[in-house]
Structures are given as C-alpha cells and as structure tokens.
Amino acid sequence: MMFKRRLTIAVLVAAVSMMGSAGAFAAEKKAAPAPAAAEKPKPLPDPVARVNGVAIPAADLQKALTAFSKSPSAAQVPPGQEKAVQQFLLNQMIGGELMYQVAKNTPVKDQDKQISDAVARLKTRFKTEDEFKKGLQEQGITEKDLRELIRRNVIIENHIEQVIVPKQTVSDAEVKEFYTKNPETFTQPEQVRASHILITLDAKATDADKAKAKEKIEGLLKQIKAGADFAKLAQENSGCPSSKQGGDLGYFGKGQMVKPFEETAFAMKPGDVSGVVETQFGYHIIKLTEKKASAKIPFDDVKAKIADSLKRKKVSEAINSIMEDAKKKAKIEVYLK
C-alpha cells in the first residue's frame, strides 16, 4: 500500500501534475490570465533563503513563480498579491528542503530507475520529444531540473514508505469505532431504477410543437398500456441517450433528477408505468424497475476502506508532526522581504 505525498517544491508539482501536452499548455495560457503583476517587481535576493545552511537559489523560486503563473490557480490571485504568492511558494520550498533533509539518509532502492521511469511516464503525455521539451520550457525548467526535482521527490516518498508508514497502525477497534460513530457515512440512501421514454422539446418550442410532442407521447403511452414492449418503444422513439439501453437509466437517488421526474419515480412501485410527465426536457413516460430502501452498508463491506482511510490520516499527521519538529530544530534564514 502506497502512501505517497508530494512534498517537493511547487515547480515539481506544476511540472509533473500540470503538464499534459503542448496543446494543453497553449490552451491554459489563453484560458487563464496570469496574476496581476506589480509595476516593476523588485529583483529577488540570491539566495532567497537558507535551510540549515543549504541555500535556496533565487533561480529556483523564479522557476516556481513561472510554473505557478501558468497554473489555473494564478487566475484566482487578486491584484497586488504578488508578494504573498512569492512568500507562499518560498514556504513550500523551505518545507520541501526540510523534508528532503529529514529523508536523504534513508537508502533508496533502484533510485536511478525510479527517476527514469517517472520521466518516461511524463513523456508519454506528449506526442513528440520536441513537444515535451516545449512543455518544460513553458514551465521555466529544463529536463535536468525536472530529473533533480523527481530525484528529491523519490527520496522523500521512499522515506515516507520505509520509515513513517510502518509505524502507523490501525486497530480493529479503531475501525469499528469509526464505523459506529459515523452512521450517516455508511448509509445507502433510498434508490430507484427506472427506464423512460422522452419526447424532447426545444426551449423555444411553439405551442404547435408542444401539441405535436404531447400527441406523440400519449400515443406511445396507449401502446404501452395495450402491451407493447417498453424497451423497444424507447429504442425507437426516445430522445434520451438511454434509448440505446431501452430507456434504462440505472439506479439513482433523490436529488439526481429534475423534480417532476424524481417525485413521480419515487412515488411509483416496481412494475408501474407512469402517465405523461412534463419536465424542462420534454415529455416522459417512466417505468419503475426496482426500488431499494435506505439501508446501512454492512461493516464487512467497508472495513478495509475505513482502515485505509484511518491509516492515511495517521501518516499525514505523522508527516506534519515530523515537519513541525524539524522546523523547530532548523536554522531557517529568509532573505526575501
């Protein structure tokens, strides 16, 4: 079971998680405006900080800023918050350096292979090597930068897997207690399974259009009452994509369908066929197939997921505790003002 947590600097987060294709980069640039820039940003001090004597170069922070400026998050930054962004990214870098220092002495098996595999996986998101390089360039980093950032990430993840995760245990009693104390989380709400036939109506439909559609749906209803096959009529007449499945919509709960449709379906009994139901989409005939009452999900069905969730929480808390302790003991000098 892997409990990987991305803790390296913001450049890696941007470079690895945001990069998909050169086209995606271009689209992102057009769709998301960069954060409002100050009239003339002051030059960054170099280094911008030191963590236990290890310098964080201004160039690294600048790369992080470049990557951030091309992310969707950049569009959410209010004007005049450039300093706050700089400080936020620097704090992430300081945290990444601290975690790296904690983790770097834990042996890593097949480190070079892990790095090469990660780069290879990233390259598969691009059609060509040139597009991959263009993507890196637009993020403000080189392939060498990327490999170094991945190397550090591999070391951190390895430490988490080898040192932190094994110390976090979850007892059967904890799992059972969580299940008992959170009944709403493990309750399956009432659901129905229904099929329908839809005669669609455009939002601009005239009275004549509505009359024609109403006449058609009423004709289909008569056929159903006379014994015609519902699924066959749905396949031949319904304007819903579900027509390919004979109108079958599968199971759904309350709040998933428009109100008139939902109210009708949940008031029916299995095997019932409704009258004509009007919604914003047009006219429907609904056939109820099955109804499932609200029920508690059995403990055995969810205990593995609960245990996994509780362990992840403990791992996260352990990492935060280690980071806080490392921060208290560290000598951190910040030169960015």
UniProtKB/TrEMBL annotation:
InterPro entries xref list: PPIase_dom_sf, PPIase_PpiC, PPIase_PpiC_CS, PrsA_foldase, Trigger_fact/SurA_dom_sf
Annotated keywords: Isomerase, Rotamase, Signal
Record carries keyword Isomerase: yes
EC code(s) of this entry: 5.2.1.8
A Pfam family per the record: Rotamase_3
PpiC domain sequence ranges: 189-290
Catalytic activity entry: [protein]-peptidylproline (omega=180) = [protein]-peptidylproline (omega=0)
Domain of life (superkingdom): Bacteria
Name of the featured protein: peptidylprolyl isomerase
